[in-house]
Amino acid sequence: MAQQVQGVVARAKGEPVAIETIVVPDPGPGEAVVRVQACGVCHTDLHYREGGINDDFPFLLGHEAAGVVESVGDGVTEVAPGDFVILNWRAVCGQCRACLRGRPQYCFDTHNAKQKMTLLDGTELSPALGIGAFAEKTLVAAGQCTKVDPAASPAAAGLLGCGVMAGIGAAINTGNVGRGDSVAVIGCGGVGNAAVVGARLAGAAKIIAVDIDDKKLETAKGLGATHTVNSRSADPIEAVRELTGGHGADVVIEAVGRPETYEQAFYARDLAGTVVLVGVPTPDMRIDLPLLDVFGRGGALKSSWYGDCLPSRDFPMLIDLYQQGRLDLDAFVTETIALADVEKAFERMHHGDVLRSVVVF
Ligand SMILES: NC(=O)c1ccc[n+]([C@@H]2O[C@H](COP(=O)([O-])OP(=O)(O)OC[C@H]3O[C@@H](n4cnc5c(N)ncnc54)[C@H](O)[C@@H]3O)[C@@H](O)[C@H]2O)c1
Ligand SMILES: [Zn+2]
Ligand SMILES: [Zn+2]
User: Fold this and answer.
1) Torsion-angle region of 84 (φ positive above 0: left; ψ -120 to 50: alpha; else: beta)
2) Which ligand ends up closest to the CA of 43?
3) pLDDT for 44
4) Phi-psi label, residue 325: left if phi above 0, alpha if psi -120 to 50, beta otherwise
5) Residue bearing the CA closest to ligand 1, atom 22
6) What is the spatial distance between Cα 251 and Cα 254, in angstroms, rounded to a whole number?
7) pLDDT in tens for each of the 361 residues of the chain?
8) CB-hemisphere CA count at 13 Å for 312?
9) From CA 156, how far away is CA 322, in angstroms rounded?
10) 249 beta partners
């Protein structure tokens, strides 16, 4: 029977979000209902609320979550009721041209639940990134559930479901950071600081954190940044070059999603270096770069969807590192909050007060 639970809904562009009763159908073929235990507040949720992703209001927000599978539909073999899972927003199809070429991390046909969750009056909800986990329970495709060690804390594990995975993956998967590399990370929120952690895991020799907020830079230092640059008071391109023998960093990771910071990343990179764009821009944004510089500086300009992760490969591995004390996921949990506090958490995110506020149920 369909269940009624509480969820955080964004009704219209720019309007404060509110808790509403939502209807969660029983799982159909290939679907699962998950009892959410924790869900982090990611900047992408705020992008949704501000109409920066699309206009498919009302949105059921939340997508950085861990929980326990409550029930599964016909044909589901990968997870069973009782499994502790991290929700992912790229359930690979196994059949598209990317999957068939052995590159499932790029899957071009990722899928979500087919049925819709609704408001009480039947209005269909658009779940953020096909998840919608600021809710006591949510309906997803079974492939969006990745089973991990249930001993891990849900608040920490859930962060791998989006921002922390995106950041770590931007460094280790997309940027292919190697031992001895110099890395600069522009924008050190949850995603950028995770890129700092990823660069450290990969053995980078120099990790330069760039932000406009000293609090974020302090955290970056604690997580492994060897140098910090406040780009309000110093030119970040000059500063990164100075710190790398005048050359620029081997890999520069942009974790803000703005044209000006992308341009900084482009010019703060050494010749033949790599730029990784993991920040998500809005549809109105444009960049204007001399094409000769794009050619002349060589290297690679890459985008990182979800840290080019493969959830089934990367989530359990990173949970292992967490359990062994080699990956401090708890450092990303600035505060745990109640479902009713998501709007306030957006405010705090806006003011740069938190790395992650995490709703715990
Ligand atoms: N590619 C992906 O798969 C993926 C996944 C999750 C999030 N994201 C995106 O990553 C970006 C960061 O997300 P987050 O959750 O870390 O957000 P956040 O708000 O926690 O962090 C953003 C950081 O950027 C800093 N910043 C803002 N303007 C800056 C500037 N001009 N120069 C330097 N630093 C600046 C802020 O001080 C803050 O520390 C967002 O665009 C988000 O949508 C991408
Ligand atoms: Zn595919
Ligand atoms: Zn996110």
Assistant:
1) beta
2) 1
3) 92
4) left
5) 189
6) 10
7) 899 999 999 999 999 999 999 999 999 999 999 999 999 999 999 999 999 899 999 999 999 999 999 999 999 999 999 999 999 999 999 999 999 999 999 999 999 999 999 999 999 999 999 999 999 999 999 999 999 999 999 999 999 999 999 999 999 999 999 999 999 999 999 999 999 999 999 999 999 999 999 999 999 999 999 999 999 999 999 999 999 999 999 999 999 999 999 999 999 999 999 999 999 998 899 999 999 999 999 999 999 999 999 999 999 999 999 999 999 999 999 999 999 999 999 999 988 889 999 999 9
8) 11
9) 9
10) 269
By alpha-carbon position, which residue is closest to atom 43 of ligand 1? 44
Angle between helices 214-223 and 190-201 (to 10 degrees): 30
Query: Probe ligand 1: pick from 39, 41, 43, 218, max atoms within 8 Å of CB?
Result: 43
Query: CA-to-CA distance for 55 and 13, rounded, in angstroms?
Result: 8
Name the nearest CA neighbour of 194 among 147, 174, 181, 84.
Answer: 174
For ligand 1, say whether the CB of 44 is within 6 Å of any of its atoms.
yes
Residue 170 alpha carbon, nearest atom of ligand 1: 1
From the CB of 163, is ligand 1 less than 6 Å away? Answer: yes
* 3-class state of residue 298 by DSSP: coil
How far apart CA 244 and CA 242 sit, in angstroms, is 5
Query: Which residue ranges form the domains of the chain, and what is each CATH number?
Result: 3-161+328-360 (3.90.180.10), 167-304 (3.40.50.720)
User: Is residue 49 within 6 Å of ligand 1 at its C-beta?
Assistant: no
The secondary structure of residue 307, as a DSSP letter, is G
- Ligand 1 binding pocket includes 305 (Cβ within 6 Å): yes
Instruction: Output the residue whose Cα is nearest ligand 1's atom 9.
Output: 279
